[in-house]
Design goal:
By secondary structure, this protein is of the alpha/beta class. It has 2 domains: 119 residues, NAD(P)-binding Rossmann-like Domain (Rossmann fold, 3-Layer(aba) Sandwich); 151 residues, 2-Layer Sandwich (Dihydrodipicolinate Reductase, domain 2), CATH 3.30.360. It contains 9 helices and 14 strands. The strands form 2 sheets. Strands 8-9-10-7-11-12-13-14 form an 8-stranded mixed β-sheet, with helices on one face. Strands 3-2-1-4-5-6 form a 6-stranded parallel β-sheet, sandwiched between helices. β12 and β13 form a beta hairpin. α1 packs across α8, α4 runs parallel beside α5 and α5 packs antiparallel against α9. The longest helix has 20 residues. The N and C termini lie far apart (64 Å). The model has no long low-confidence stretch (mean pLDDT 94).
Length: 324
Amino acid sequence: MLNAAIIGMGRWGQTLVEGVQGRNDAGLRFVAGSTRTPGKAAGWAAERGIRLLPDYQAVLADPAVQAVVLATPHSQHAEQVIAAAGHGKHVFVEKPFTLSKASAEAAVAACRRAGVVLALGHNRRFLPAVIEMRRLLAEGALGTVLHAEGQMSGPAAAAWREGMWRADREESPLGGMGGMGIHMVDMLIHLMGPIAEVTVSSFPRVSAHVDDTTAMLARFASGATGTFATLSLAPRYWRVALFGTKGLLEMQGQERLGFAPIEGEAWTRDFPKTDIEHAELQAFAVAAAGGPAYPLPLEEAVHGVSVFETMIGAAASGSRYAVP
């Protein structure tokens, strides 16, 4: 059993804990933690057997802690990962991994030098429908994939207020990208391979704090094209569609997958709802115990950050052509 500490006990930090605490099959239990507002989390932590330590350094100095799980502001991730590696702790870090390719590479290098496992929380990779999409792609069911479409949206920004870190443009460049859209970028990389170039439009159409509308046109290294959007003031929505020379494969929500071949009969399949937070932390624990590697290669983790950083630059450049 891997003894872990949770760093950051806001809504998502608590969600990660609830996914595994008290479940023997997880291979991981939270024994300690720290948070910026300990008064708000003290009762919750005590109920779950989590020792509340004064700060991150105290967590890293605790010999009972073998791993840290980071649910902290994006800008802190690289420094926190490197510090954990320096203390020989395995690291699970929430997305976005970091906000620059250089810092992501530095974090990966630190973990490799220390010989510790580094895992990134792109939990949609564990969805059965996604696993089936990968299988069908490997079998050539779509032929040559010409184009991919992705969208992940939700109303999260409606709750963001001045002073909250998610409402800070430094922490949330491109608005919903940090909390939602980065998951879809990872999914496109997972299914389609590296992204070679992007054109991005991102702006606050309604929000007073950060961008609420972000859209991207991409070209993959394979030569396929892609479109993507994330909206942070819209209903919850998840969709991935791959268009190939033999058919269309479309994930409609996280549990439904449809296939429409050019020739033959179309089908739609529903998959069971999966506790993906439990699945990702379980995979992290298995990797830390010397089992199979965590199913998100670190090269892809760094590439995802590189795409995010490039999107930020592309949006800022404003290279657009008006339609006469």
